[in-house]
Amino acid sequence: MTAKKFWSWFAVFVAAFYFIVPLLATLEFSMRMRRGTYSFDAYRSVFADQRFVSTFSYSVVMALITIAIGALLIVPTAYWVRLRMPYLRPVVEFVTLLPLVVPAIVIIFGYLRLYNSSSWLPLTNTETGSNALLVFGFMTMSLPYMYRAVDTAMRTIDVAVLTEAAESLGASWPTILFRCIFPNVLTGVLSGAFITFAIAVGEFTMPSLLNRPAFGPYLALIGANKAYEPPALAMIAFAMTWVSIILINITTRLQKGAAGAR
Amino acid sequence: MAATQPLLNRRLITDWLGIAPFAIFAIMFLIAPTVYLVSGAFLDPNGNLTLQNLIDLFQPNILAAYIISIKVSAASALGGAIIGFGLAAAISLGGLPSWLRSAVLTFCGVASNFAGVPLAFAFLSTLGRLGLVTIILRDVFGFNLYATGFNLLSFLGLTLTYMYFQIPLMVLIITPALDGLKREWSEAASVLGATTWQYWRMVVIPILWPSVFGTLLLLFANAFGAVATAVALTGSSLNIVPIVLFAQIRGDVLHNPNLGYAVAFGMVVITGISNFIYIWLRMRAERWQK
């Protein structure tokens, strides 16, 4: 028993060493900017850079649009499949898992071929079109997580009974969807939303190949040209990931609580 | 009968109308782009059917890219799976305090998402030429890491870096499976006189192998499709498949668009096969997790 405990502690310590050393090294490196002493100059320089603010807010806006459109597409679909077309569930689930099979770089390659300036739908010609393609790309990447989260939340409510109750009270379809179904699966939508946010804000491949001024390509650009700002940015990104994971954990706990109360 | 027929049809039409937005989205932005690339892999520039593009994948520089990609993905998946399993077993079965368990799991949630460009920065600050570990090894232990031929922009460096998100992913997926091992099973085994080794060989491994092997494949596909870390870490100095494809999309470096489609097709085949086996094994494994 003590041997088992010893090896368990040993495993945790080895893993902690591997995981904490790069973080310490990154922190240390990011503070080396002023010669001979540690300082937060690199962080000051990062926050002072106009492009940091503009690319970051661009990515945040794109992520929020992705979440809004994604929720508006996924929730009614998951609802409809559960209510009216249960025989389609395996097909829909298969489609939502496809983005795990097809890497993001391949999907965006396909977009650039199908929707380029000489195609039938030249989305890449305009700024708005490229932004739309980026949003659709983010939606595709987050599809497996978003659909799963919403569908799991929907499992805990009786869709058919809720719909019949609302219908017999004279509710219209929009009322049923937005005042009955949406509030009931809100925790699922939220946990899907945080994952989408984490994916979209840091994503490099898609915005880079679409030439969008997003945060991921900006990070890569800084990495190629500066010395002390990249580790500072890595620490900031790590902190942001930490925040979104904590938010995901809180919403899943809420979801579990809601499911348990039923 | 004649009266119910149109009613049925109307219901069928609303059924399909309800699913139409999703269907249109999936076809336009997921299925059509993939099908376009895959079919392009089988066409020559004039639109005739050919297998030449797939044969051309075996030219030395593309083949080398596939081989090093597969090697990095396999090594980081294997390393991630072994270490991740050890860590998961420690927090699940090792009798450690419960705060440690939830701390490890939360940290794994963060680290498995800490990929892409920032991860490359972190490892450059650690094991790059001026990284903290490199400097400490040199100044304190008198050991010059880079004199041994080590390079972060290499097979070993990339594998070490990828393991930073592979290990946590393994922990997150395999811990529920380890938690699913019922205490009664180990008690029953020891009552029947089994040694610990026999219990693991005859009970634990047969139950867990679909989860472990399936997760291994998921980790493999995960590393194989990773673009951002590789690009940020190595620029384009290391010849791996995602970087080749990235450069090809940027500016037709292979001088043959259809060969580019074939490179993409090869990627889909490799990640596709490993993911399909993963999903299938996962369905098998879930029988024991109820």
Distance between the termini of chain B: 46 Å
Total DSSP E strands of chain A: 0
CATH superfamily of chain B: MetI-like
Radius of gyration over C-alpha positions of chain A, nearest whole angstrom: 23 Å
The span between the termini of chain A is 40 Å
Write down the CATH topology of chain B: MetI-like fold
H and E string of chain B: HHHHHHHHHHHH
Put the structure in a nutshell.
The complex is a heterodimer of chains A (262) and B (290). Chain A is mostly helical.
Annotation keywords:
heterodimer; A: 262 residues; mainly alpha; MetI-like fold; B: 290 residues; 12 helices; 77% helix; 0% strand
Overview of this protein structure:
The complex is a heterodimer of chains A (262) and B (290). Chain A starts with a helix and ends with a helix. In chain A, helix 1 crosses helix 12. The model of chain A has no long low-confidence stretch (mean pLDDT 87). Chain A is mainly α and 262 residues long. Helix content of chain A is 81%, strand content 0%. Chain B has 290 residues and is mainly alpha-helical. The mean pLDDT of chain B is 85. At the A-B interface, helix 1, helix 3, helix 4, helix 5 and helix 6 of A face helix 1, helix 3, helix 4, helix 5 and helix 7 of B.
Task: Outline the fold blueprint.
The complex is a heterodimer of chains A (262) and B (290).
Chain A: H1 2-30, H2 41-48, H3 50-83, H4 89-101, H5 104-114, H6 127-155, H7 159-168, H8 173-184, H9 186-202, H10 205-209, H11 215-225, H12 229-261
Helix pairs in contact in A: 1-12, 3-6, 3-9, 4-6, 6-9, 7-8, 9-12
Chain B: H1 4-40, H2 52-56, H3 60-93, H4 98-113, H5 116-127, H6 132-139, H7 155-179, H8 183-191, H9 196-224, H10 228-234, H11 241-251, H12 257-285
